[in-house]
Amino acid sequence: MASNQPAPELLSEPDSEPVSEPVPEPVSTWNPSEEDVAAVRGRHRLPKQRSMSRGGTVLGVATMAAVGVGGVATAEGSSPVSLSMPDLGFGDGHPSADAAGTTTAAANVQNAGEQLRTRILAQAEGQQSAAENADRTQAEKDAAGKAAKEAAARKVREEAAKKAIADKAAREKAERARKAKEEAERKANLGRYVLPTTNFQLTAGFGQAGNLWSHNHTGLDFAAPTGTSVYSVAQGEITSAGWAGAYGYRIIVKHTDGTETWYCHLSSMVRTSGKVAPGDTIGRVGATGNVTGPHLHLEVRPGGGTPIDPRPWLQSKGLNV
């Protein structure tokens, strides 16, 4: 449908007035208050450290935290925001109220950051010092324990060594005492002689002829009951003991001057080796070998050679035969 309204007139005529721009509404200025500044400060506070690591880790973490706080404080203080504030009549040469408030707030934030950083560093240093002290104390305790163990072990070794020395000294002392006793007995027995048996009766003399011997009798016979003790007539050493044919069981003793004494026809041998002193029992009277009854056949052979008459030899030693 066609419109009956006339066409609008063009506004681009050269003599027409320019269209004015809309006036913007005035921007409200921000006057920071104490609560606003406190809120700004609160945004940069660090959470309280709940636990710290020992050693260098503690100081490193604390240092990073402190540097962070210092950076925030510096950032807050280095570029204060310039805000437009109404003139409160300070006059020439005085900062405006908005500049003064902003500067004070920034300074407070920076001071708070520095104080926090200082406290963090102090706490970190304290914890690091405590950790080092704890480590040093533990090390000293371990060293003391080790030293105590070593001292105890050393004491045990020293006591064992002392005991070994004492035992050795005791053994040596006992050995010296034994040797001294033997030497005293030896000296006491030198030149001492005894009869070869007791409760005897002489039944055959040296050189006596008889059908019981292939040659003349080579010793002296002491008739005594079977089992009567037979003694070594002088100090010496047993050089032979055992069965000897016609002699039966025989013991030979070699004395210190080389003379041998033979003890024959024994029923048993008490000593078969070793050193003997005068009067030591070496056997028992018997009737073994070529005999007619129990008796001791004694022979004396100087230097282990040809036999001699035992009777005068025993008499020469102070014995009554």
UniProtKB/TrEMBL annotation:
Residue ranges with Basic and acidic residues bias: 133-151
- Give the matching InterPro entries: Cell_wall_metabolism_enzyme, Dup_hybrid_motif, M23ase_b-sheet_dom
**Where is there biased composition of kind Low complexity?**
19-28
Q: Name one GO molecular function term.
A: metalloendopeptidase activity
CDD domains with a match to the protein in the record: M23_peptidase (cd12797)
Stretches assigned to the M23ase beta-sheet core domain = 216-310
Gene3D superfamilies linked = Glucose Permease (Domain IIA) (2.70.70.10)
Q: Where is this region: Disordered?
A: 1-36, 124-151
What is the name of this protein? Peptidase
State the organism of origin: Wenjunlia tyrosinilytica
